[in-house]
């Protein structure tokens, strides 16, 4: 469905079913049109095909543009209203806006792990059984490449080139190749050669990572895995699958990587989405200064 059709149906819903005031109608439609314009400019998606990651990146883009807390919060409220309507009317299968929070917390920069916390988390899977090998390979690959969780679970065995040390990632009708560090290559190699053949349900299973039933790992399944290892590592920060993606970008930038190279690896269509991490690194440096300088 074209964006214009979505917006037309949404406008009718607001005015006729919700009896929205003129001001509410105007602001909601303005916010939704801005989201539609972003999708057309920065992605290959429409309003009815955008997923959780796309909406999260849009919110990050709004904050990177210097939008106020109230503006971002109002935009999220408008977006949630739109997708609730689309979901209730079976125009989309699942509501991708459920995890967006329309309050002051949306103004916070993405939370990342320190290098030590990343090391601690990656050490948790024990390679004593198939699950341990698989989980370590997944965590190492996620931090090595910074790919989205949906991209991780969508990977096929044919997308891995161990000899070249890269993976091929498909996202939004685009393809990109991302390098891996040696530890991730080793973890992935051991999983593929020692474990995956025993885990897959069928010999021709294309999925790189599978669950205990031998079928493609789900997003929810990986969410449970990362929460399990967060608890095991006694890390107090609320770690989500997206946390390692944020940490990947911030750590590369902190260590001098070119922001355009990071943009390419993350698959951001627009540099403004990547520049959020510059703000994060600057904030961390300021925090260190304020804590360490004797006259701060």
- Coarse shape: globular
Strand content: under 5%
Count of folded domains: 2
CATH topological fold name of the largest domain? hpI Integrase, Chain A
For CATH, the homologous superfamily of the largest domain is named as: Intergrase catalytic core
**Helicity level, as a percent range?**
55-70%
Query: What integer is the average pLDDT?
Result: 87
Can you tell me the CATH architecture of the largest domain?
Answer: Orthogonal Bundle
* Derived structural class: mainly alpha
Strand order of the largest sheet: 1-2-3
Number of helices: 13
Please provide the count of β strands.
Answer: 3
Alpha-carbon distance between the two ends = 55 Å
- For the record, the CATH class of the largest domain is Mainly Alpha
Short summary of the structure?
The chain has 296 residues and is mainly alpha-helical.
Account of the 3D structure:
It is a single chain. With 296 residues, the protein is mainly alpha-helical. The chain folds into two domains: 3-107, Orthogonal Bundle (DNA polymerase, domain 1); 115-289, Orthogonal Bundle (hpI Integrase, Chain A). The protein contains 13 helices and three strands, in the order αααααααβββαααααα. The chain has helices at 3-17, 22-42, 52-64, 69-88, 115-122, 130-145, 149-154, 182-199, 219-233, 241-254, 259-266, 271-274, 276-292, and strands spanning 160-161, 166-171, 174-179. It has a three-stranded antiparallel β-sheet with strand order 1-2-3. β1 (160-161) and β2 (166-171) form a beta hairpin. α2 (22-42) crosses α4 (69-88) and α6 (130-145) packs antiparallel against α8 (182-199). The model has no long low-confidence stretch (mean pLDDT 87).
């Amino acid at each position: 469905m074209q964006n214009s059709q979505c917006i037309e149906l949404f406008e009718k819903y607001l005015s006729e079913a919700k009896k929205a005031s003129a001001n509410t109608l105007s602001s909601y439609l303005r916010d939704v049109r801005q989201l539609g314009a972003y999708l057309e400019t920065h992605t290959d998606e429409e309003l009815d095909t955008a997923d959780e990651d796309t909406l999260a990146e849009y919110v990050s883009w709004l904050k990177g543009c210097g939008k106020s807390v109230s503006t971002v919060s109002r935009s999220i409220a408008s977006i949630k209203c739109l997708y609730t309507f689309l979901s209730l009317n079976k125009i989309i299968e699942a509501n991708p806006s459920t995890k967006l929070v329309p309050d002051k917390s949306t103004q916070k920069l993405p939370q990342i792990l320190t290098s030590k916390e990343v090391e601690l988390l990656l050490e948790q899977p024990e390679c004593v059984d198939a699950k341990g090998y698989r989980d370590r390979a997944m965590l190492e690959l996620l931090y090595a490449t910074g790919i989205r969780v949906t991209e991780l679970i969508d990977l096929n065995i044919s997308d891995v080139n161990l000899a070249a040390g890269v993976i091929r990632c498909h996202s939004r009708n685009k393809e990109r190749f991302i390098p891996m560090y040696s530890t991730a290559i080793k973890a992935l190699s051991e999983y593929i050669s020692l474990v995956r053949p025993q885990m897959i349900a069928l010999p021709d299973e294309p999925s790189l990572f599978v669950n205990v039933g031998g079928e493609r790992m789900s997003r929810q399944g990986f969410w449970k895995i990362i929460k399990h290892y967060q608890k095991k590592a006694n890390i107090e920060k609320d770690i989500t699958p997206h946390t390692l993606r944020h940490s990947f970008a911030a750590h590369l930038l902190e260590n001098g990587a070119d922001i355009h190279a990071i943009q390419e690896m993350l698959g951001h269509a627009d540099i403004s989405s990547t520049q959020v991490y510059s703000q994060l690194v600057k904030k961390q440096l300021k925090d260190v200064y304020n804590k360490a300088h004797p006259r701060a």
